[in-house]
């Protein structure tokens, strides 16, 4: 299974909304990849910025896969890929 960049952003929005006790529509996310830092996400909630590293992004994807698709997925099953956009590959 492959999650698109939009689905990864949705996963992060849902995860951060739950953690910050806000609505998902109040969360903004920008994904990035850098040679030095790898995959990151800058998240804005209530006007405050926070950076997430790859482990945080994968955590959000794990919860998203469980809540949206009913899948029990483990960290080692998720791989982030960069082609034309960032995607997440989930091993079955």
UniProtKB/TrEMBL annotation:
InterPro entries xref list: Uncharacterised_YxcD
Taxonomic superkingdom: Bacteria
Pfam families, A to Z: DUF2653
Protein name as it appears in the record: DUF2653 family protein
